[in-house]
Each structure stands twice: as structure tokens, then as C-alpha cells.
Amino acid sequence: MEKALNAQIRVEAESSQVYLSMACWAEIKGLEGIAQFMYKHSDEERMHMLKLVKFVNERGGHAIISELSAPDTDFGTFQKMFEQLYDHEIFVSKAINELVHVTLTEKDYATHNFLQWYVAEQIEEEALARTILDKINLIGNDKGGLYLFDRDVQMITVDSAAADPGA
Ligand code: OFO
Predict the structure, then answer these.
(1) What pTM was estimated for this model as a whole?
(2) Residues spanned by the domain of 9
(3) Which positions ≥6 away from 49 have C-beta within 8 Å?
(4) CATH code of the domain in which 104 resides
């Protein structure tokens, strides 16, 4: 179980790096709102990582801070970047589901209970990513639409994390 949780710590840390890299790309392209959204998302992933770190250490394990894979630095277009974000969240959801599966085979119900927060979080993050992709499809190639999207997207966040008292 500890090994699987440590693997998830790495997944969350890498997620934070991926969104940080997306923030940088957006920022240098002048997409200020998208950059702010990605910076916030990156912070959230770090929070997800820390929550796991603390859980592992408090349960008598040892949270391992490992090396991370380097994220992409060029995302092509903002549309492609958000598609990549969505795909990444699907990947993370699968990793969380696998982790939950391990808790059941190991009969580790404390960790099972702890992970329910992540299960709920992934449902929200996937829904958020889908909503954003829908908006992007509506915009198409309309420059005015992109201007409004960039202005508004920074207001969008996943609020379950903020509402979590243990966060
Ligand atoms: Fe950690 O929630 Fe997104 O990936």
C-alpha cells in the first residue's frame, strides 16, 4: 500500500509540474487568464501531493520525494493544451481508481476512506475539464471569443479542494 501511495505522490507532483509548464507557455503567449488558471491548478496538484505525503507519514510510513519526469514545454495551441489537460485528468483518475483497488485487496479501509476525497476530486476535475473543452469548441477560431475565454477562465476553479478542511 505504501509503495502504491508513494507512486501516487509522484503522479500528483508530476501533475503540478505539467500545469506549471502549461502556465508558463500560456504566459509567454500573452494568455494571462489561462496562465493564472494553470498556476492555480498547479498549486492544487501540489496540495494533493502534500495531503498524500502527510497521510503516509502520519500512518507510520515514509513518503518518498522522488525525481520527476520533465513535462512538455510547448503545447501547440490553447485548444490542444486543454485537451492535454483533460487527458491528463483521465489518466490521474485511472491511477486513483487503481489505488482504491489496492486498498480493497489489502483490506486497508482507513486508506480506502482517505482516498474517497480523491475520487470525488477527480469527478469534479474531469467535469471541469469537459466544461472548458465545450466552451473552447463554441469559440472555434473567433478571436473575440478567445479574448473573453481568457478573461473568464481564471475565475474557474475546482472548489471542493478549497472547501476541504483537511486541505
Ligand atoms: Fe490531483 O487532481 Fe488533477 O490531476
Answers:
(1) 0.92
(2) 2-66+75-163
(3) 9, 12, 13, 16
(4) 1.20.1260.10
